[in-house]
Amino acid sequence: MPSPVPMTAAPPPQSWTHLKENYQHIRQGSLDLTHTMCVEDQIIQSMPDVSPTKWHLGHTTWFFERLILKSFASGYEDFDPNFDYLFNSYYYTIGQMHFRPNRGLLSRPTLADVHAYRAFVDAAMVTLLDQYSGDAVGEIADKLIIGLQHEQQHQELMLTDIKHVLAQNPFFPALFTAPPRPSEDEDGSILDWLRFEGGLVSLGYDADEDGPFAYDNEGPAHKTWLDPFYLASRPVTNGDYRRFIEDGGYADVRLWLSDGWAKITAENWTHPLYWVREEGQWFEFGLDGLQPLNPDAPVSHLSYYEAQAFAHWADRMWPGVRLPREAEWEYAARQAAQHAGDRAENQAQHGNLLDIQRLKQDGIAPTPRPAVAAETADSAKRQSLCGNVWCWTQSAYSPYPGFRPLEGPLGEYNGKFMSGQLVLKGGSCYTPRDHNRLSYRNFFPPDARWQMTGLRLARDL
Ligand SMILES: [Fe+2]
Fold first, then answer.
1. Whole-angstrom Cα distance, residue 255 to residue 306?
2. How far lies 119's CA from each of 4, 58, 294, in Å?
3. Rounded distance, CA 155 to CA 144, Å?
4. Which of 105, 230, 415, 425 meets the CB 3.0–4.6 Å disulfide criterion with 405?
5. Which of 160, 215, 176, 161 lies closest to 435 in space, CA to CA?
């Protein structure tokens, strides 16, 4: 049975050059994300789920060293043999690793050491790509592409993690400047319902539509049945969520899943992770520091439990409202692509996603932006599913029919996490633009909320 993951064939010479350029571009992007951070910012681990920036920079480098250079670069010698232990994340088939919650306790290697490690590995990678003449060109290309996708995943984690680190500071330091705020009369807050007919629909990665790469967990493509449903024309906003809070949402046990209620009472959660109340006003912490809450922007940093409780509360206004299923979201997004005459690959890159080069140039913080204005045409609303916040779905992160993980250590990348987690769709303002796909299956446990996560409501007809 063939692997569900697209494996690139040996590239012709011009695409080999393209791969090298892509390698250099994406690797530089990780460093660019750190250009407004000081050394001290980059060594802190504020909770077990958060990794220090320094660790992200080292781990993504180790990925190329361990999976490509050690196998294919003749005569390659480790930059530092201890790094196999320090920068392995969870690949037990490779070896043991440093205890994750203690990543922030390492003053050595220094940040300068890690930068030198990156330069060493990058030079070796470029030499390999320039000089390799063996018969493993296809395998190198496959692993290189996975390594770059992996690096982009960590670019998003670098932003979510540094945000959590800086949020521990009572003076809420900013890494970037705040984006301009919309004028008062620009109201994107009215929610409409878009109808989708469903039927027997296709779910999962399609190389013709989604581009040349997908992780193993995005396939195989398969059919699934959807009854007709509505999807909201925009994500739930801060203003919507504030009404839920003011209506006593966090104190009403009837709205919550049992595990969710246990979590919010044990942790005393009464608002989204980065909301701060001062003198009767709500503020929100972001990479632009502490800013007045923007009621029209999508609500972010919610756990699944909070998203689910909101949907339960909103049923009073819209009977039958709920979180979307994974298949509903993807089908709706593919319908939007068809409606726009666009390939899914392009459609996935529309929306408020991360552009690292622009961020470095203008220094304006990536942040969720107000949803599509109410008067905008229906077709535009249907193009707005991607970006801003990852949308929680009610679908368990479980294997698609016929799923098989990759062979070797990369088989540990996705498949072994298929229990106790929910699927999120759509990418966020922290997701590198060309990393997003309609078939992408992000996943987190239901209590996770340090990621850029929000929700878009669905509704039964
Ligand atoms: Fe990783």
1. 9
2. 34, 11, 41
3. 16
4. 415
5. 215
Note if the pTM is more than 0.85. Answer: yes
Q: Phi, psi (5° rounding) for residue 214?
A: -150, 155
What length does the chain have?
461
Q: CB under 8 Å to 226, separation ≥6 — which residues?
A: 196, 198, 199, 201, 325, 327, 328, 331
Strands (DSSP E) found in 175-233: 193-196, 199-203, 222-226, 229-232
Distance 240 CA to ligand 1 centre (A): 35
The closest alpha carbon to 456, from 386, 398, 367, belongs to: 386
Averaged over successive runs of 10 residues, the pLDDT of the chain (461 residues) comes to 42 77 98 98 98 98 97 96 95 92 97 98 96 92 96 98 98 96 62 94 96 95 98 95 98 98 98 97 98 96 98 96 98 92 92 97 96 57 83 98 91 90 98 97 98 97 90
What separation in Å is there between the alpha carbon of 443 and the centre of ligand 1? Answer: 14
How far does the centroid of ligand 1 lie from the alpha carbon of residue 315, in Å?
39
Query: Hey, which residues does 354 pair with through a beta bridge?
Result: 432
Residues 155 and 33 sit within 8 Å (Cβ to Cβ): yes
Determine if residue 279 is left, alpha or beta; phi over 0 gives left, psi from -120 to 50 gives alpha, anything else beta.
left
CA of 244 to the centre of ligand 1 (A): 36
